[in-house]
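Why should sequence recovery work at all? Because a backbone constrains its sequence more than one might expect. Tight turns favour small or flexible residues, buried strands favour hydrophobic ones, and helices have their own preferences. The token representation captures these environments compactly. In the example below, the structure is given first.
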């Protein structure tokens, strides 16, 4: 199957391309730097600069992952604009592409994030939960709405509300593991905020699962069935790295350093993959200790 992937050069996209190639699919990657992306991706991946550049390939599915990194630097007004526009604009390009294809792709799987729900304290959060209105929610709402437009073109649309993706070589662990390895890790604020995590294998697994299951559409929480609090995460990461993790970062300091972006660190949602479980997705990693042991095994 020809699968077009926006943001295919990223942390999730790289692993997705490897899995698609291994399964004899043809990844078509949209990247702002196609030559650089092609070098970093497995042999066989075709990279081009714009979604429209793949019109002649008639992809059967699109995976929409592109977007400005959200957890880097303070959320200035300019950064907020870039976070929204980088996602909404490329998603619009994707939907416009679908509308121009003689045979539109059968499936669009589009990324969103746990941020869709905003701060939810310690209550269970399923796809039915009413979101808390804040910046992360506004961003995800606009991103999802843009993707949903493809439905009117006869495209099956599945949205993945992604939790914290864990693996070596990218994502949040590349930032936190070095700090923990120095013995400088610790909980953030009071540590009671929930961190819905997912091993990158399962993230890619869910995308493949949704590609194959043409009876599934709508929003899916993309996280493991056992989310943990930040305090539990801290303890497990310290254990996996065999380092003490007893140096807490006070909430006030994080607010001073990161401004509004500190909400990503200090608030959360106990997100549960209710619809994935219902659909029978076979999780490889349900428990954080097993996921971290796998990641730091080397
Ligand atoms: N990783 C996580 O824990 C996590 C959690 C929740 C949601 N998500 C969402 O899932 C998606 C994929 O995640 P990821 O971790 O693979 O992200 P990533 O590693 O940051 O990769 C995203 C890709 O998007 C492209 N990109 C970056 N800035 C862009 C911009 N301003 N305009 C257009 N394209 C841009 C880049 O590709 P080029 O440089 O090749 O153009 C980059 O490789 C992201 O949208 C992210 O927000 C991820």
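From this structural description, the recovered sequence reads:
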């Amino acid at each position: 199957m020809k699968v077009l992937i926006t943001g295919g050069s990223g942390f999730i996209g790289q692993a997705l391309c490897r899995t698609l190639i291994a399964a004899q699919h043809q990844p078509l990657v949209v990247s702002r730097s196609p030559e650089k992306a092609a070098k970093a991706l497995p042999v066989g991946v075709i990279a081009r600069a714009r979604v429209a550049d793949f019109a002649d390939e008639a992809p059967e599915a699109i995976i929409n992952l592109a977007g400005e990194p959200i957890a880097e630097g303070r959320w200035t007004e300019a950064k907020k604009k870039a976070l929204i526009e980088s996602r909404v604009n490329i998603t619009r390009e994707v939907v416009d592409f679908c509308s121009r294809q003689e045979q539109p792709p059968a499936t669009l799987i589009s990324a969103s994030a746990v941020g869709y729900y905003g701060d939810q304290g310690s209550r269970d959060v399923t796809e039915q939960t009413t979101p808390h209105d804040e910046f992360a929610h506004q961003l995800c709402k606009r991103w999802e709405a843009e993707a949903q437009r493809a439905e009117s073109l006869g495209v099956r649309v599945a949205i993945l509300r992604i939790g914290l993706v864990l693996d070596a070589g990218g994502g949040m662990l590349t930032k936190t593991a070095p700090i923990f390895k120095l013995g400088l890790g610790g909980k953030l604020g009071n540590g009671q905020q929930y961190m819905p995590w997912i091993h990158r294998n399962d993230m890619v697994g869910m995308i493949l699962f949704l590609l194959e299951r043409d009876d599934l559409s709508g929003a899916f929480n993309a996280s493991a069935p056992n989310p943990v609090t930040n305090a539990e995460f801290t303890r497990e990461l310290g254990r996996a790295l065999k380092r003490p993790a007893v140096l807490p970062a006070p909430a006030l300091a994080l607010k001073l350093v990161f401004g509004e972006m500190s909400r990503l660190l200090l608030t959360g949602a106990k997100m549960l993959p209710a619809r994935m479980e219902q659909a029978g997705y076979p999780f490889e990693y349900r428990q954080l200790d097993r996921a971290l042991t796998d990641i730091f095994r080397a």
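A few observations help interpret the result. Residues 2-166+197-224+270-284 form a domain with the Rossmann fold fold (CATH 3.40.50.720).
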